[in-house]
Structure formats: C-alpha cells, structure tokens
Design goal:
Length: about 300
Amino acid sequence: MKPANDFLIRDEQVFSGALSCRGCGWSLLVRHLASLLGPDTVYVLPASCFSIISGPYPLAELKANVVHTLFAAAPATATGIRAALDRQGKTKTNVVVLAGDGGTFDIGLQALSGAAARSENIIYIVNNNGAYMNTGIQTSTATPYGAVTTTNPGEGYKKSWPKDLMGIIAAHNLPYAATCSLAFMEDFREKVTRTKNTEGFRLLMIDGPCPPGHKTEPGDSIHIARLAVETRLFPLFEIVRQHYKLTYKPESFLPVEECLKYQGRFRHLFREENKAMLEDIQEHTDNTWNRLLALEKLANVIA
Ligand SMILES: Cc1ncc(C[n+]2csc(CCOP(=O)(O)OP(=O)(O)O)c2C)c(N)n1
Ligand SMILES: [Mg+2]
C-alpha cells in the first residue's frame, strides 16, 4: 500500500474557482488527471458539463490549452490537433478529449470509432454520469436501467439497459482502455500513468458522481462511487488489445440496493410494486460480472 500522501496533487494544473456543482466527481478527477498529465497537454472539450466547468477564455480553469468543439466532433478535432502538433515536432504533447457519456455513447460515437480505428495518438476520457446532465438530465444510452431522467416517457424511468461502451471499444483492438472510479484513487492514478505512457488511441471511462442528476447528497459522492464498485454496478477493469483484466475484485458482493438507495433517481425501485426491477438489476449486474470474469479467463488462456 502506498503512503496516503501519494495522492497529494504536487503539480497543480487547475486554477481555483471551478464552476462545477458541489460534489461533482468529474471536476475532482480532472484535477488529479491534469496533475498527472502535466502542462504539456491540449484538452479538447465537446459540449458537456466540462465546457462550463472549464469556463471560457481567459477564465479557463485548466492551465493547459483548451479547445472547445462541437458535441459530435471531439475525436475528429483531436485528430487535427494531433496532426498539427506532430507536424511541429511536438510529438510528446498529450492530446486529451474530456467528454460526457452523451457525447461518447450517442452523438460522438462515429467520430470516436473513426479515431480509434485509425489508431490516432489521442487520450479519450469519458465521464459517465449516466445522462445529458449539462442540459437538464436527459436520458442517454449510458443511463442505467431504472433511473429517472427528465425524458423517459410513461412512469419516468428508463426501461432499457445501457450500451456496453467498453465492449464496443474492445472491438477496436486498442492498446489500452480502462474503467476508473473516484473512490479508488490509487487504481485511477496507475491507470492514468499507464495511459500516458502508452502510444495510440487510449480510453478511460470514469464513473461520474453527479449530485443534481443522481439526486444525491454532495458529500456522499465518494461513498456512492465506492459502493458502485463494491456492488459491481461499476466494475474496475482494463482492456489491452481485447484482453480483459479486472483490477479490483470485491471480497464480498454487496447487493445493488446498497448503492442505489442513496440515489433519488432510483427511489421508486424501493416501492413494493417495483421489487422485480431491483431483482432484474441484480441479475444483470451478476451476469455482467460473470461475463467479465470469463473474458479475463479467456485472456489468460490465449496470452
Ligand atoms: C448538436 C448538439 N445538440 C445538442 C447540444 C446541447 N447540449 C450541450 S451539452 C449537452 C449534454 C451533454 O451530455 P453529456 O455528453 O452526457 O455530458 P454532461 O453534460 O453529462 O457532462 C447537450 C445536449 C449541442 N451542444 N449540440
Ligand atoms: Mg453525461
């Protein structure tokens, strides 16, 4: 175990005064991320919460160069920036997309797939907060089954399962992709460092606690992020060229309710008539976990 002060930010790369909501997991993680990536980094922001958090020039929160771009176009914009930097001989400069789940799972998916398939030398970070939060909590294809958003017809909660983005990404045969959590900082820092030291298209998906969107207490963000991993609702794993590896295996599996009960967006699931939905979520979580274990085993067999 590393000493606790290993998590201290030594090389601060953000100015004080971010415009994020209280308890925003994303802004805290970007602070750590930016300190690990260092000043020689260009950030590309598609429309999302971070467009606001980062703020307009000259009030930008990040000390590095920031390029705001269209919702669907971040990987394409990053491709152009990479090419221009390479042409200037700045091949070591990091080009980093900071995108939301809507910009990644939905509207930006074709640009993401294109850049990944071309093996562009870019880092892509997706903050999966499970909805289009910046514009008022609309459903995305990352929104969890059962979650209330402002755009679910009928009873108001989502009735389909989220897209397996990491599975889609794995199919692109990337040199490195991983999932990360605010509550597992050592794991996060190791994955960011590995990402930085790998060449080619790399992707990190982060579980993004969002108090206004998830209807949670701002002070509970880290606790809920930890419960998401402990219940296996958000497993931590890496994918190297389609080879899966779980980076954290909870010793005992907490039931999904233990995480969902803190989030107002799932409050209706605790009514007697919706009990079957909670069971569905547990079953889906167990199946996903078993699938990941099988994929990890497969990676060991063919390694
Ligand atoms: C083509 C287009 N459609 C809609 C919008 C409006 N818009 C800006 S940010 C946003 C939500 C982004 O959601 P997500 O990518 O999940 O990021 P988050 O806000 O959750 O950080 C939307 C719909 C836009 N900027 N461009
Ligand atoms: Mg979002």
